[in-house]
Amino acid sequence: MSQEATRKSSDPSPKPPPLEAGAIGRGLLAGALTWLLPGLGHWYLGRRLRAVAFFALIGAAFGMGLACDGNLAVVDDLRAPVLTKLQVLADLALGPVEPMTRKVIYGELVYRNPRPGNTHLPPALEQRRQRSMRRWSLYGSSYLLAAGLMNILLIFDAWDIGIGRKE
Amino acid sequence: MFHVAHMLLFSGLLSAFFALIAARRGRRLRYGLILWAALGGGGILVSLLMFPFS
Hints:
heterodimer
């Protein structure tokens, strides 16, 4: 056995094969398309059936969230600044549909609760507060959050397929 | 009852998503069903464990 073969067989973490030309661009484009519309990146990469399935699943979670009067997250500097920022990021992973939905259900693009000490609640946040008191609102918010988190995973999946790391 | 229905629907969506994204072709159905049973069954089990404290 040659020295090269011996080295390869004893190496516990062999280096991955080099990326094809244009793989990074393809991965980035696939990720960006997935952010634009869930499943679009997979469609672009030729995984059409999976693209439709992902679109249906994330669309169903998002639709259930809205049907159950779920709320999109806002940053709350007083109670849980880090967690609420992460929730807003998860919502934003849904792409352009997120600000559009926010505008439709609250009337404006509101992303932050009033600063501590400011007792005045803007109409959009009042709308959000009333929505949160409806019966299924908590369930709906969970669906919306899950839809955003699923799309984050989908963006990474599209990237992996785009650069050739996954089939 | 609606709570359980929501839980099963929610876990069904997640299971289908993870089966599609993580499992190999041919194993997706089994993977998804096991995950769904684990999430749904786990949720019911945890709720029963919490029952004495409610």
